[in-house]
Design brief:
The structure is a single chain. By secondary structure, the chain is an alpha+beta fold. The chain contains 19 helices and 19 strands. The chain has a 5-stranded mixed sheet, covered by helices on one side. A 4-stranded mixed sheet has the order 8-5-11-12. Strand 15, helix 16 and strand 16 form a beta-alpha-beta unit.
Amino acid sequence: MIRRANDYATIGVFYTIPESKNGIMEKNYNYTRRRVYLPEYGRHIHEMIDYLGTIEDRAERTRQAQIVIDVMGNLNPLLRDTSDIAHKLWDHLFIMADFNLDVDSPYPIPTRQDLRPRPDKIAYPRKDMMFKHYGKNVERMITSLKGNPDQKAVESTLEDIARYMRTKSYEYNQEHPNNEIIIGDIKRMARGGLTLDEEALGSLKSEYKMPAQPGNTHPKKNNKGGGGKNSKGGQRRGGRAFVMALVALCVGLASCSRDTAHVNGRFIGTAGQPVYLERITPAGSAVVDSVATDTKGAFKFHIELPGGQPTIFNLRYEGSMVPLLVAPGERVSVVSVDDPGRGYRISGSRESELVWQLHQTLTNGAAALDSISALWAAAQPESQRRADLQRAYSRKYYDVKRSQIGFIVENASSLAAVYALYQRLPGDDVLFNGDSDHVYYRMVADSVSNRYPGSRYAEALERTAQEMADGRRLVNRLETEGIDEVDYPEIDLPDMYGKRQRLSELAGKVIVVDFWSAELPASNANNAEMKELWRRFADRGLAVYQVSLDTSRAVWVNAVQEQRLPWTTVCDLRGTATGPLRAWNVGSVPANFVIDRQGNIVAKNLYGEQLYETVSRLTAQN
């Protein structure tokens, strides 16, 4: 490289001229150059410092270094009046020289080790916890009771500690321990010196439970660091004080606004994590707000209620959900330890508290059914034990079902009953027995309408109840009158452009009503077969009315466009909750029905040659 000094003394302020090779000028990219340690000074300052290293005379090199320091100071005129600016500039000079510059400095010359000091080792307690899920503070509290002359105070405190230990054991193991285990653990942590009232401790029950997430009968255990969360959060509180603190946080005040409500909460151990507020309407769900928890895991939402009507919301955190039924003016408080899916406490909303009660009933019932199922699977086939467990399962199943129905009947005018109507035990498709479920939907719809006139939930229940009743009547007519003489329930849903399409508008044609989903593996093949049928008989009076059970508009619309479906295809994005599915008593998809020109259902679930022959015969008739 050719370096040329400018007129500023002889300090090596220079620029570079790229060398040429075979008449071609080579470019000098930054990645081929040496590292720039302090980019704020620029590459030219670094090159000036490199030039200092080529000056052999030490005195001259020091003089030139001082001039470079002056130039560096000119680059930061606002800092020149700072008391230690000179010291900083000299330190920066040696840093940019990579600590490889021999000059006289008015300040101590820094070294690489000075700028990257090794941190001192932090002393860390080496004492291991005897039981991580209880925490170190429990062990300390038990030890502190030794030698206390007030035996009544000791026994009372031990009862509180034992209750707390049951709670933490349940959080850790997802099942309550035998009280004998708790008593044994207390003895081990006390290491003698404590007199226990084992009879009193043996009869204890937990005051605080952490139920599993609704719909999940196998809640995940907390594997996030073993006892770490407990030692950082739970250990700073002990016994009943900790449990009661959770309840105390749920105290709320009435709001003065009639169209708004407030939700305050705390998910302990979730600092800086997002919490989403999801509004549930008959048309579907949508996230309306989100907030990050503060350092204590607290959050708050100010909610606007459409039309001043009670509204159903979900609080969502990671994969967990807390249902809320919020009325105008309410101040709702929600408290949970770490994961609301494993349990929560709620206050300030009577309807939400009712949902929590239902939540307890269903999750505890599902856990009991799972336990019986596991025992049944382990028993010998054809054994008496299996038969006994089968009967026990049936009794428990119907106990839970009756509790759910009892809850719905008792709270028929509450939105909690609306929520309860759509809750199912694992594997259930119906509320109770399927045939009479529409009676409960109708009862709740009428009661909620009377209490909350104009409620969208009541209107949706009315439609659902009617569709279920229509579906039941259709099945009865199919069974009693024969399939050749049954007319069909109406379908009125939007197409991909948002225009509502009524099935009855196709009257006078041979209609194939097809229930499908774009997410089904065989949907392309089924539609290809239907397109061939359409191509053959469309000009002879065939119409296809296709009902999609998709929940994603993008998936549905993309499938319709990519496959170029030429017929009417509709979808309300409610999936298996769509009304026509119940009205037509469709149990699985794909499914289809064939309607003749007179409006009678004449066949169902025909494919291949059977569908071709039936459509050919019907379109040939006038």
